[in-house]
Write a structure and sequence with these properties.
The structure is a homotetramer.
Chain A (H helix, E strand, L loop, with lengths): L5 H4 L2 H6 L2 H21 L7 H6 L9 H11 L3 H15 L1 H4 L8 H37 L4 E6 L2 E7 H26 L18 H12 L13 H27 L7 E2 L19 H22 L11 H28 L2 E2 L1 H8 L8 H12 L1 H18 L3 H7 L1 H6 L2 H7 L9 H16 L1
Antiparallel strand pairs in A: 1-2, 3-4
Helix pairs in contact in A: 3-8, 3-10, 5-6, 8-9, 8-13, 9-11, 9-20, 11-12, 11-13, 12-13, 15-16, 16-17
C-alpha cells in the first residue's frame, strides 16, 4: 500500500480496507462464520466449526500461491478454500472435510466484499460527518458575508458565502441519507451454494444462512442474489452521487482560488501545492484530487451498471468486472472526501476580496435589483429593457451604473438618489439567503436529534 | 413522436411525457403556478395571477419561434418567458408586467423537468407493478419446475424456473423501493431567482415558494439547488439500477431462447421477430430491445454524474447536458420495461425441454449431489476428487454418470443403487428453492399490505 | 428537426442527414444499388434492377406503417423490404421477386448507416476546415499578444494568445488527420446475407458485392463485418476525440469570458446569451453548447465500445444499441463544431485586458524569469527559494515584486535595475512562443499542399 | 505486482511496465535526457549533463518519501526533482543547479508516461501478432468446417469455423493498423516549461527539445501539448477498440462452450476453471477475464475523453485523472490479449459437435437455401412464405423439414428429391465463406510483406 500515487488519491485507512490481505480476510471471515453456523445448525459436526474457524486468519496464507491459484481457477475463492482445507487438515483431518460446507466460491467472494464495503461505508460516514461539520460552521459564520453569485461563470447577483456553504451542506446531507437507506439493502450475506438453492445442505440451508448472517452482523436476504447485482451496483451509485457533490464543491473552491478572483484558498501547508517551475504559485491540490475522482468515478459507476446483465445463475466476465471496480469507487470517493474535509476545515476565506469583486462591475451586478424595483411601475419587460440599456452604456463608457441610471429621466422620476444608493448596495439585495441558511442548519439539527 | 425507431425503443405514453410540447407545458405550469402563488403572497397584484395563468397553455405558442429563440438565449425558458409576456400583454398589459416574477430561467426549466419526471415515474411504477405481477405468477406457478442452473454459461446444478422468476421479482421489488425513497428528494420545486437568493422578491420569497410548491404538488426544499444536481442525478441512478435488472432478466430469456436450449420463448405475435432472410427464425425482439437499453443507460447515468460538478451558482455546459439525458434515460428505461412486461406476461415456458436439458450431461449436473452425499464419510475434498474423476470418465466414455459411479468400489460401498438413483434425480436436489420462492412472495405480500 | 432543443445542440444539415427519412433513404439506396448490382452480375434478371431501383425513394413509403412494422420485426429493414416489395409489385410483379436479393436486414441497415455517416463526415470536415481557418488567423494575428498563461487556474508565466490558438489548431489538425485515416476503414459496404456467407447468391456473391460497392462509392471489405463493430466504433472514437478538443477550446473561452478576467468574448448577436433575470449579463452560449457535447459524447463513445462484444454472427441488443448512438455522436459533435466555428470566427479578443491581467500580481507572474536568470549563478534550487521568499513578501506586503527583489542584497549584486525591469516585462519572457506558432502554421501549410 | 488479482487480470510484463518504479524511471529518463540535451545545446554547462544523468536511477530514490512529497505537491514530479537535486548535489553541487532545467513537472510526467506507453504498445503488438497467427491458423485449418451461424443467438444458416476465425483475424488486423497509425501522434516528447513557451531556456528552447527527443527516440511535436490531450486519449481509444474486438471473440468462445452447444473449449490446464462446488465443470476462465476487460475498458476510455476539456495551460483534476487511467487501460487490454492468445493457441474445436448441432433443427437451418432455390420461380416473397409455412409444420409436428417440403406439391413440382437433399446439406450452402477466408489471409499476407 506504499504506492507512489495511492497517498495522493486514496486515504490510508481505506487502502487498508481494500488491501489484498483484507480481501482475503473478508473471505476467511465468511468461511469461519459459515463453519460455526453450519456446526450450530447441525449441518456439520459440532467440533468442526471452531476447528475450521481457527485457521481463518489471512496471515497464515501464502499470497503468491493464492495469486497463482486464482489464475487457474478464475477466482480467488477456490484456491483459498483449497489452502484453508490444507491448513485445517494439518491440525484436524476430520474437520478439514467440512471446510466451505454448502457454499460456492461466489458466496465467499461476495460476502467478503460486503464485509469490506461495510468497513468502507463506516469510514466514509465518518469523513462525511467531518465535512458536514466544517460546512455547517462556514454556513453559520459567513451567513451575512456577501460575495458575487456567478452563473455560467459570470457575475450575476450577490449571494453570501454562507449560502454557498449551506447549499453544499444540504447536498451532502442528502448523500448521507442515501448512505443510510442503502445499508439494509447491501449489508446482507450472499449464501446460495452452487446455483442458489443451497441444495447440498439439504433441509438445513436456511437455518445455516440465518446463523451465518447473525454471526457476521449482516442481514439474511429473502434469497441469494448471485446474478442480481443491484445491491452492490446501488452502493456504487450512492458513492457516485456523493463524489459528484464533492466534485461540485471542489470546483467552486478551485474557481474561487483563481488569481483573478482570489476569494478563498485551500489551507496552506509547508510545501503544499508547490510548483517546480514557478516559485510564487500555490496550486489547489485538494481540489484537483477531488476533481480527478469526480472525473473517474462516474465511469466506474457505469461499469457496475453495465455489469448488471449477468448470465443466468452466475455472470461471465461481468461479475469479475466488479471485483476491482467497487473497491476503486470506495477508494477514490474516500480519498476525495478526506481531501475535501481537510480543505474545508482550514479554508481561508477572503471576505474583503469578495466585497472588492462585487464592485468590479461598477454596479452592474445589482442591475436586477434596480429593474426589480422599477418593474411594478414599468412592467418587468420595460424595466428590464431600460436597465439593460443603462448597463450597456455603463459598460461602453466605463462609468458606474449608478451615474448612468441617475441620468435616465424615467428612472430619476421613480427612484430618489438615496433609493438608488440603497438598491446598489449588495447587502441590501441578499433576499432569503440568511433564511435559507437557517433552514438548512435547522434541517440538519433535526436530523441529528 | 412518429419516429421510425421510437416505437421500438420507447413507449407511447412516455414519449408523450417528454415531447417538446410537454417540456414547454412543464415550464408553463411553473409560470402559471408562480403567478398564482406570487399573487396570493401579495408579491404581485391579485388579478395578475389568473391573467397570467390563463395564457400558460402550450398550444398557444409557436414552436418554431421558440426554437429559434432558444438558440439565441442558450436555453428554452428565456424565449418562453418573452412569448408568454407578449401573449398576456395582448389581453392584460398590466398583468404582463408580472410574468416570471422573481424567477430565473433555471427555475422554470428545472421545475418543469421535475413535473415531467413525476409523470415518468408514475408510468414506470405502473409498468413495474405489471412486471412484478407477471414475475410473481411465474414464481408461484413454476416453483417446482426443475431446470438446469447455469453458471458461467455452463450447467451447474438444478434449480427451478420459479426460483429464477423469484430472483428477478426480488430484484425488481428492490428497485421499486428505491423509486419510493427517491420521490421526496427529487419531487421538489426549483425556485431561487437569479442566483438562489430570491432577492427580487424581497421578504416574500419563501412564502411565494411555499405557495408555488403547494400548487404544483411538489415539496419545497430547504433552499434552491441550482448547481447541486444530486437530486436529478439520483433519479438517473435509480432508473439505471432498474434498467440493469431488466437487462439481466432479458438476457436470461434470450439465452433460454437459444436454438440449442429452447426452454422459454417470448410470446408469439403475428409477424413478430420475423427474419427477412430466414423463414424459420423467430428472434427475441423484446429481449433485444431491453438489452439495447441496458447497454445505453449506464453511460447516460455516467453523463448525469459527470455533469454534477457544476460551476458556482449555475453550470456551464454540464447543466445543459442534463436536458436531454434524463428524459432519454426515462424513455429507454420505460420502453424496456414495457417490452419486458409484455414478454413476461406471455412468456412460453417449455418445462419438458427444461427436463430434457437436465439429462443432457447424463447425470453430470448432479455430480455435486453425489459428492455432497459422500463428503460426510470421505471428506469434502476426497469426495470432490472422486466424483470429479468419475465425471471425467463419464465424459470421455460418453456414458451416464450413474453407471460409472456404480462401478467405483468406494462409492458402491457407501451408496446403494436406489440411493444413487435418488441422488441423481434433479427433483431431489432442489434444496431451499421452494422456500426461497415463498420468502420472496411473502416479502412482496408484506409490502403490498 | 423542428425540435425545441435540436437547433441549440445540433446543426440543421446534420439533422437532415440523420432524419428518419434519410435513414430510410440510406437503406433504400442500398436496395437500389443491390438490385442493379445483382442484375449486372447476372444474379437476377436484367430488367429487375432498374424496376426495383425506381421504387427506392423514401417519399413513397408510409412512415407510420414502417414504424409499426419495425416494432414487430425488431428492426426497420424487414418492414422496409416488405413495403418495397409491395411497391415494386404494383408496377412489375416479376421484378418484385428479386427485391433484397441475397441480403439480410443488417446489410441494408449497416450500409445505409455508412452512407449517412459519409455525409456526416463530409459536414464535419467542412466545419472543421472553417474552424481551423479561424484558429490559424488568430494564431497569426495574436502571435505576439502577451497574456497570462494559467495552470491549475492560477497565473503561471506569460504566453501569447497566438500560442493558445496555435495549440488548438494543432490539436484540431490531428483530429482531421484521424478523420482521413478513418475513411477507408469505415466507408465500406456491409454485405453478407443471413450469416455472412452470401450463400443464397451461390457463386455470384463476391461479384455482386463488388458491383454494389462500386455503385455506392464505398469500398468492398475483405469479408462481411456483421458482428465485428470496430469500424463504426472507430468512427465514434474519432469523433469523440474531436469533441474533446472542441470542449477544451470552449472551456478556455468560457474561462476567459469570466467577469473577473474578461480577455475574450463570444461574438455578440442581437439577444444572444440574454439572461431572463439579469439585464447586464451576456452568457457564453456557444461555449456552453460545446461543453454540453463534451460532457455527453464520451459516454456515448463508451456505449459504442461496450456494444462491440456482439454475439456470434449478429448481436443481441448491442447492435441495436448502436442505431441511435452513432448518429447522436455525429449530431452532437457536428453541433458543437458549428457553434465553435461561429464563436471563433467572431471572437472578441481584448488585448488590453490581457495586458492588465498580467500586471495583476504585481510582477509575481514573472518570478520564474527572475529565478531563471539567477539560477546559473545560484543554482536552480537556491534561486527558486530566494525568489519564492521574495514572492511571499511581495504578497503579504502588497508590494510590486520588483521593489522587493531590488531590496534583496544577493539579487542586487547579480542584477542591475535595468536588467530587473527587462526581466519583469512579459514581452521579454515569451520564449519560443512565436516559433511554436510558426511551426504549427507551417505544418498546416505543408499538409494543405 | 504481487497483487491477488493482478495475475488474473494483467500480464506480468505489463505490470512491470506500469509499476511505480517504472513510472519513476520514466520521469528520470526524461530528466537524464534533458540534462544531456541541455548540455549539448549549451543551455547548461557541458559537464552538468552526465553528472545529472548519473543519478537518474530509480533504485536510488526512497519511494516512501516520494509518495509523501507527492501528496504535498499534488504531483509526483516535484518531489522527484527535489530528491534528484539532492542526490546530484551530493556528488556535484554545481551540476545540481541544473537539474530539471527549463522544464515543468508536467514535462517529466507526460514524457515519462509516453515512454511507458511505448513499452506497453510494444508488448501489445507482440501479443497481437501471436493472436493473429493463431487466428490465421484456425481460419485456414477450418475453412471448410461447417457449423451453425447464429444471429440473435438463434441458428440462422451454416457458416464455417474458418470464416468465424477469419472475421476475428480481419478485425484484429484493423486494430493493428490503428496501433501503427497512432505511434507518430503519441510517441512524442512533452517539453514546454511552465506554460508551454520554454521561456526559461531563452533562445535555446527548440534546440534543447530537438536533442531531448532524439535522445529518447521520440518525435518532437510542433509545439507542447500540455492541455491538449488528444494524443494520449487516442491511445486509449485505440486500445479500447482492440479490447472490444477481444471481447467479441471471447464472447463467441464462451457461447460455443455452453453445455448445450459444446463446439469449442478453452485449452485444458491442470486445475484450470475448476469449480469449488461442482466437480464436473470446467469454466471458461480466459473468456471471463477478457469479457471483464471488455466491460471495464469502455468506461475507462470515456474517462480519458471526459478528461480532455483541460483548463487553459494545465488541467485541474482532469489531467490528474489520466495518471492511473491510461495505465489501467493498457494493463487490462494487455491482460485480455495474453489470455485470449493463450486460449486461441490451444483452442479445442469439436467439428463433430458442430455438425451435430447443424442437424438439431431437422433441416430448418437450411430453410433459406430452399427458399432461395425457389425464389427465381416463385418470387422471393412467395417462396419465403411457402418455406416459412413448411418450417412451422416441421416444428409443430417435430418432423424433418425435408419430409414436409417433399409433401408440398408446389415444391415437389420444382425440386427433385436429390435436389432437395443437396439443398439441405450444409456443406452445399456455404456461399463465399471459403473465398472470404482466402481474402482475409491474402490481405494479411500482403500487409506482412
Amino acid at each position: 500500500m506504499a504506492g507512489l500515487l495511492d497517498p495522493l488519491f486514496r486515504s490510508g485507512p481505506m487502502c487498508a480496507v481494500f488491501a489484498d490481505r483484507a480481501r482475503l480476510q473478508g473471505m476467511l471471515d465468511f468461511e469461519a462464520a459459515l463453519a460455526r453456523a453450519a456446526a450450530r445448525a447441525g449441518a456439520i459436526p459440532q467440533r468442526a466449526g471452531p476447528a475450521i474457524a481457527a485457521s481463518c486468519r489471512a496471515e497464515l496464507f501464502d499470497p503468491v500461491a493464492l495469486a497463482r491459484g486464482t489464475v487457474l481457477a478464475g477466482n480467488p475463492a477456490a484456491p483459498m478454500v483449497q489452502a484453508l482445507t490444507a491448513l485445517v487438515a494439518k491440525k484436524n483431518a476430520s474437520a478439514a472435510r467440512y471446510v466451505h460446507w454448502g457454499a460456492t466460491s461466489q458466496d465467499a467472494i461476495d460476502t467478503g466484499a460486503v464485509l469490506q464495503l461495510r468497513a468502507a461505508l463506516d469510514l466514509i460516514e465518518a469523513d462525511a460527518r467531518r465535512l458536514a461539520a466544517a460546512l455547517a460552521r462556514s454556513a453559520r459564520k459567513y451567513r451575512r458575508t456577501p460575495m458575487a453569485g456567478r452563473t455560467l461563470l459570470q457575475q450575476a447577483v450577490p449571494i453570501t458565502f454562507g449560502l454557498k456553504a449551506a447549499g453544499a451542506l444540504n447536498a451532502l446531507e442528502r448523500s448521507r441519507a442515501r448512505l443510510r437507506e442503502l445499508r439494509p439493502r447491501v449489508l446482507v450475506i450472499q449464501f446460495g451454494g452452487a446455483a442458489g438453492t443451497l441444495a447440498s445442505l439439504g433441509p438445513r440451508g436456511l437455518a445455516v444462512g440465518q446463523a451465518l448472517a447473525a454471526r457476521l452482523g449482516l442481514r439474511q436476504p429473502a434469497m441469494p442474489w448471485h446474478a442480481h447485482r443491484d445491491r452492490v451496483a446501488e452502493a456504487a451509485t450512492v458513492l457516485g452521487l456523493l463524489t459528484g457533490t464533492l466534485g461540485k464543491i471542489a470546483k467552486d473552491i478551485a474557481l474561487l482560488m483563481q488569481t483573478e478572483i482570489g476569494e478563498a484558498r485551500e489551507p496552506a501547508a509547508q510545501g503544499k501545492g508547490r510548483s517546480s517551475a514557478m516559485p510564487h504559485k500555490r496550486n489547489p491540490v485538494d481540489a484537483a484530487i477531488v476533481l480527478a475522482a469526480a472525473t473517474k468515478v462516474p465511469a466506474l459507476v457505469s461499469v457496475m451498471l453495465s455489469a448488471m446483465t449477468q448470465e443466468q445463475e452466475r455472470g461471465l466476465g461481468n461479475w469479475q468486472a466488479e471485483w476491482e471496480t467497487l473497491p476503486e469507487i470506495c477508494l477514490l470517493c474516500g480519498g476525495a472526501l478526506e481531501h475535501l474535509a481537510q480543505a474545508l476545515e482550514g479554508l481561508e476565506v477572503d471576505a474583503q476580496r469578495m466585497r472588492a469583486n462585487l464592485d468590479l462591475t461598477r454596479g452592474l451586478i445589482l442591475a436586477e435589483a434596480v429593474s426589480s424595483a422599477l418593474a411594478p411601475e414599468l412592467g418587468r419587460d420595460t424595466a428590464h429593457a431600460l436597465v439593460e440599456q443603462a448597463c450597456r452604456r455603463a459598460l461602453s463608457e466605463e462609468r458606474p451604473l449608478r451615474d448612468v441610471l441617475a441620468e435616465e429621466p424615467k428612472i430619476e422620476r421613480l427612484l430618489a438618489p438615496e433609493q438608488l444608493d440603497r438598491l446598489l448596495d449588495p447587502v441590501n439585495y441578499l433576499g432569503a439567503a440568511e433564511k435559507f441558511v437557517a433552514r438548512v442548519l435547522a434541517a440538519r439539527a433535526g436530523r441529528k436529534k
